[in-house]
Specification:
Length: 393
């Protein structure tokens, strides 16, 4: 029987492997969407996602339905890592939590500073605050042995904390047309789910049936339906003892391992393919310097690295946390830049923030360019030859 640390590390490695290879698939799907949106098939591409199915268009089903499963898996990852995983104690949570907070505040401030004179753009302040785990780990994987395991853990833990922050932002700031009756039913269903957990119900079927009902209630409540996935995830049973067992006996492990590959290799690529397509025919330098895309680009590329590095430096100087073992400041800086790859969550928040096609296109453009600059910048820093022995101040 493996130790708790070995079990936690095995779960983390499996998750990281999914994200790395999934990130490459996501890149390919997003690139294909971009190509089609700028080809002779552009009209067919856009019409496809506006095809009505059951009263909602296909894009709506992708962004509100399939992405609920993405949020479910994110919630399962957060809970797993906090119960006997890489985030199971304050010393392990401290650095990624502090870095994530700084990495969300500074991009938002930069965006607001650039768009302050345009009130119609203010709702997009949260777009550059997010990090895409799959994309960031996919880029990090290209460096092989240049990047140590503790550094990969730091990036993944930081991105998980970042996802938690994004979930809270969506729940608090992007609710609309609130329905007290639908919300009341959602609360009742959520309470039932937590009761199942409390009484030790291990079968997944009751959780999944109630989770589907919760999604419907959330859809009509005005609170974004995808958050039903997070609520459901928090109720799926797992204990720290489960991490000491060989095999994947806990309900959480079974659900995560069953859904994880589907979300990573099917749902996220579909989302990227459906939402990354933006026409570039009329894009010019003047377009990129408009406040909305410029705020997103600057927030992702400059805001993320400034916020994360200042937070890490503060945590290090005050003794609240230490750098990942064996990592240099240059490597941490490279990871901080990679965290500016926002893609999935940034696009998702942008679609919640704006309903008009013009601003949606500008958001997509800003996210794509900001994420590309962050990927290239992080790669340049991590690949830059290091002279001498790195020292941590």
């Amino acid at each position: 029987m493996r130790s708790l640390a070995q079990r936690a590390r095995a779960s983390f490695n499996r998750f990281a492997e999914w994200q790395i290879s999934g990130g490459l698939v996501l890149m390919a799907a997003a690139a294909l969407g971009m190509v089609l949106a700028n080809s002779g098939l552009a009209q067919t591409y856009y019409q496809l996602f506006h095809t009505k199915i059951g009263g909602l268009d296909l894009l709506h089903w992708i962004n509100d339905g399939l992405m609920a499963l993405f949020f479910l898996v994110v919630g399962l990852e957060i809970k797993r890592e906090m119960v006997g995983g890489e985030l199971d104690s304050w010393p392990r949570r401290a650095l990624p939590l502090i870095a994530a907070v700084g990495g969300m505040i500074v991009p938002a401030v930069i965006f607001l500073a650039i768009n302050w004179h345009m009130p119609e753009n203010i709702r997009g302040w949260a777009v550059p605050t997010a990090t895409d785990i799959a994309f960031a780990l996919g880029v990090l994987a290209l460096f092989g042995s240049r990047v140590s395991y503790p550094l990969k853990v730091f990036l993944t833990s930081l991105a998980i904390m970042d996802d938690l922050g994004a979930i809270l932002i969506i729940a608090i700031f992007y609710a609309s047309d609130f329905s007290i009756s639908a919300f009341g039913l959602a609360v009742l269903i959520a309470a039932t789910l937590f009761a199942l957990n409390w009484y030790g119900v291990k079968r997944l079927a009751p959780y999944l049936v109630l989770g589907a009902l919760l999604w419907v209630c959330m859809l009509f409540s005005g609170i974004h339906a995808t958050l039903a996935g997070v609520v459901l995830a928090m109720t799926i049973p797992i204990t720290s003892d489960d991490n000491q067992q060989d095999g994947d006996g806990s309900p959480l492990h079974r659900l995560e391992h069953g859904l994880g590959p589907w979300v990573t290799f099917v749902i996220l690529p579909i989302f990227g393919f459906a939402n990354a397509g933006v026409p570039l025919g009329n894009v010019s330098f003047d377009t990129l310097t408009e406040p909305l895309p410029l705020g997103i680009i600057a927030g992702l590329f400059f805001g993320k690295q400034i916020g994360i590095m200042c937070s890490v430096l503060l945590a290090r100087r005050t003794g609240l946390a230490q750098l990942p073992s064996g990592a240099s400041w240059r490597q941490v800086y490279g990871v901080a830049i990679l965290c500016g790859i926002g893609f999935t969550m940034s696009l998702f928040i942008g679609l919640l923030a704006f309903n008009d096609i013009e601003r949606e296109s500008m958001v997509k453009l800003g996210v794509l360019i900001g994420s590309l600059l962050s990927a290239l910048g992080g790669a340049a820093v991590l690949l830059w030859p290091q002279s001498g022995k790195a020292r941590n101040p």
